[in-house]
Design goal:
Elements: E1 22-23, E2 28-32, E3 42-43, E4 50-51, E5 56-59, E6 68-69, E7 74-83, E8 89-97, H1 115-125, H2 137-141, E9 147-153, H3 163-170, H4 172-185, E10 188-196, H5 200-210, E11 216-221, H6 230-238, E12 253-257, H7 258-270, E13 276-282, E14 290-295, H8 300-306, E15 316-319, E16 326-327, E17 341-345, H9 347-350, H10 363-367, H11 374-382, H12 386-392, H13 402-406, H14 413-434
Parallel strand pairs: 1-14, 9-10, 9-12, 10-11, 13-17
Antiparallel strand pairs: 2-8, 3-5, 4-7, 5-6, 7-8, 13-14, 15-16, 15-17
Helix pairs in contact: 4-5, 4-7, 11-12, 11-14
Length: 435
């Protein structure tokens, strides 16, 4: 696997970096039971139940899963399947708010006296990877391999998104509390807090908050995309290479997003599970772009309304950033645990250029962080050549979009790579069913 040490330059458009986060309330929330990698949680409430902020509404189902909690106080009015962004369905719990935002009386800070206690606390918090991946956080630490390097991801390299920036500027105490707990109960060789150089205020704040802790280095990395990609970040901070099919722990690393770490610190201090998320609201259609602390499950329409509404009909609305974000079908979809931004893009911002024939320039290969061969991958996909797709490197593609962004022929390279990976999954499913 060959890594590109330079990455690509993308427009920053960090319009809300100086916008302190503001909290909103919600009249109704629709909370899916699948906001994480792994099995959906199992609902434990029924229609008509009264809940409060932090009440368990769906419990973890299996090792790789995460519990779900009410983000408002009020009444459960509906439990029905919801179409998710990956095309699957999972139950969602609808709660009509009573406007009081009353916390559940049973919430108390967890008692932590050991590594096992800390893992159990993180499990009960419902915290998942809040940078977008949604991997249950407790699973990352529930390992029997030594942790040589803990890498804290504060890169936030995609255009527009500044929610992690606000976490670093506003929640230093929470970040410190989470990090100190992890270092107290885990044997960790070193800690690197990785932040892109263009976030000078964040570098300064994190040096102030955690820079004096033993083993911790706050490191300013080059401002390139996709600096925040897990495999890229591990390589640029530790020189370790995460191979195909491996997890960071397989090379002695654990990677955790800075907002995830802050959420752990907050839970340890208060006992309130993950019920809200800081979300960057931006794009040319948004009247008042800002960072908003949103109750999980709030419909996107309500969030945009909180930001003054939309000035025009968006061409596209995204969960996340313009490089790796997912287009949503309508504004009724909710804010999820792992939602770090919602963008309402104008016709000009979201206009797709006309694709022309590949000119074999090799730009896509040279800009891929992993040295994948997109032209070979596209041909293999067209021919439905499964072995050719694997050989071209489809399985290691992180779908960062560098290839499409820099392609002079405007080829839909990333989309083709996604389709090739989907073909591999379908073929693997066929083989599994045939056995």
């Amino acid at each position: 696997m060959a890594f590109s040490l330079h990455g690509i330059k993308v427009p920053h458009r960090k319009n809300t970096a100086e916008s302190a986060s503001v909290r909103m309330t919600a009249n109704v929330v629709n909370i899916p039971t699948a906001m994480h990698i792994g099995k959906p949680a199992t609902p434990v409430v029924k229609v008509g139940d009264l809940v409060k902020v932090g009440t368990l509404i769906a419990e973890q189902n299996g090792f790789v899963s995460s519990s779900i909690y009410a983000s408002v106080s009020g009444k459960v009015t509906k439990i029905q399947d919801m179409l998710l962004s990956n095309g699957s369905y999972a139950p969602a719990v609808t709660i009509e708010s009573d406007g009081e935002m009353a916390p559940d009386e049973s919430i108390i800070p967890p008692v932590v006296n050991s590594k096992e206690d800390l893992i159990e606390a993180i499990k009960k918090s419902g915290i998942v990877g809040l940078g977008g991946a949604g991997f249950p956080t407790y699973v990352k630490f529930n390992v029997d391999k030594p942790i040589e390097h803990l890498v804290i991801n504060g890169a936030e390299c995609e255009p527009y998104i500044t929610s992690d920036t606000r976490t670093m500027l506003e929640r230093g105490d929470d970040i410190k509390a989470g990090l100190e707990a992890i270092l107290k109960y885990f044997e960790i060789g070193s800690v690197v807090f990785a932040i892109e150089k263009n976030k000078k205020a964040c570098v300064a704040e994190m040096q102030k908050a955690v820079g004096s802790i033993n083993k911790v280095e706050v490191k300013a990395l080059p401002t390139v995309y996709p600096q925040g990609g897990e495999k890229v970040l591990v390589y640029h901070t530790t020189k370790k290479i995460i191979g195909n099919g491996q997890l960071p722990i397989d090379v002695g690393c654990v990677v955790i997003n800075c907002t995830t770490l802050a959420s752990i610190g907050s839970f340890l201090k208060t006992g309130m599970p993950l019920v809200e998320k800081c979300v960057t609201v931006d794009g040319g259609c948004v009247k008042e772009p800002k960072n908003v602390i949103v109750p999980i499950g709030t419909p996107l329409k309500d969030v945009f309304d909180f930001c003054g509404g939309l000035t025009q009909e968006p061409r596209k609305v995204l969960y996340g950033g313009p490089m790796m974000g997912i287009a949503v079908p309508d504004l009724d979809v909710p804010v999820l645990k792992q939602t770090n931004a919602i963008l309402a893009l104008t016709q000009k911002e979201a206009k797709l250029p006309v694709a022309t024939n590949c000119i074999r320039c090799g730009t896509c290969i040279n800009t891929c962080p992993f040295g994948i061969n997109p032209p070979a991958l596209a041909k293999a996909y067209k021919d439905k050549d499964i072995e050719g797709i694997k050989k071209a490197g489809a399985e290691i593609c992180m779908e960062c979009g560098c290839c499409s962004f820099n392609c002079p022929a405007n080829r839909p390279i990333t989309q083709t790579n996604k389709l090739a990976k989907a073909l591999l999954r379908a073929e693997a499913m066929k083989e599994k069913e045939a056995k």
